[in-house]
Amino acid sequence: MAEIPEDVPRYILDTSALLTYFEDEEGADRIEELLEQAQHHQVFLLVSFISFMEIFYITLREQSEETAHERLTLLQQLPLIRIESDPATGLVAGHLKAKYPLSLADCWIAALAEQYEALLVHKDPEFEALAERLNLLSLPYKARQM
To answer: Model-level pTM?
Structure first.
């Protein structure tokens, strides 16, 4: 695990939170505040390796390869700490996948939130199943289209 001082608040940004920022959706202002705080070392913003892949493929599918690459470049310039996979996180993610109806990527992100005792920032209703296990910061959900 990366060494992160315990006296500084830690947040992990789910892919949905990053997409909220990129798409300037409702809740993007909260991500901008966190980025500003991270720039001044008032908080640590963690991002799972898997979110980089998700940002790329979602943007590639919905927009263009050029935009997907631009977003990856921007992610590397933001004050984020990228957390790679490791066996311990994999075991925690596996336990979460066995117990909760979450995607594999969401399990990795939730496992990191648990391991780093970080507030999980998301816009994904599926994380609500973990409300008793993790500290969650829910951004406004999109209205469901009928």
So the answer is: 0.91
